[in-house]
Design brief:
This protein is of the alpha+beta class. It is built from 3 helices and 4 strands, in the order βαββαβα. Strands 2-3-1-4 form a 4-stranded antiparallel beta sheet. Strand 2 and strand 3 form a beta hairpin.
Length: 91
């Protein structure tokens, strides 16, 4: 599994619509609005690097309202962030 973090500068007048359109893309698991020099961070989780290119270059970059993107591929995860609890059925 490849995880990529995509830093996005977007048109602030349509930020909510842009974020939702990104979140609806296959391969995008989360979208966060953030403070600072960028407006959104999208988390892309796919099987290989070619799929990262397909998600980011072929789909995400074509979403209306995006001014620019910067993609970072994660090498390692140091915290599981309680992923097991997120998927637990409480049994």
């Amino acid at each position: 599994m490849i995880t990529a973090l995509v830093f996005i500068k977007a048109d602030v007048d349509s930020l909510n619509e842009t974020a939702q359109a990104i979140a609806d893309l296959e391969g995008v698991t989360e979208v966060y609005s953030v403070t600072g020099a960028i407006d959104l961070i999208a988390i892309v989780r796919v099987r290989d690097v070619d799929e990262v290119a397909a998600v980011v270059a072929d789909r995400l970059n074509k979403v209306p309202g995006i001014a620019s993107t910067e993609t970072h591929i994660a090498f390692r995860a140091y915290s599981s962030h309680d992923l097991e609890a997120a998927f637990s059925l409480g049994i």
